[in-house]
Amino acid sequence: MDDASMVGLMGRVTGTVGPGLVGEVIVRVRGGAEHFLAYAADGSARIERGTVVMVVEHLPPRTVYVTPAYDS
Fold it and tell me: What is the pTM of this model?
């Protein structure tokens, strides 16, 4: 899967994303769901487990930068 096709996909945080943490998200891709290492796109946000996020950057093979999909 190329970088551009990951950008814009929605996922759910399965391991808290935040400063000093390597988080984890699950994203539906290639007809299934896959886990990716995740970092906050702005570098300072803390994104808790269960939050719906959007992929804003993909670093192959398994790292994504995410931002919350909805304001809370």
Answer: 0.90
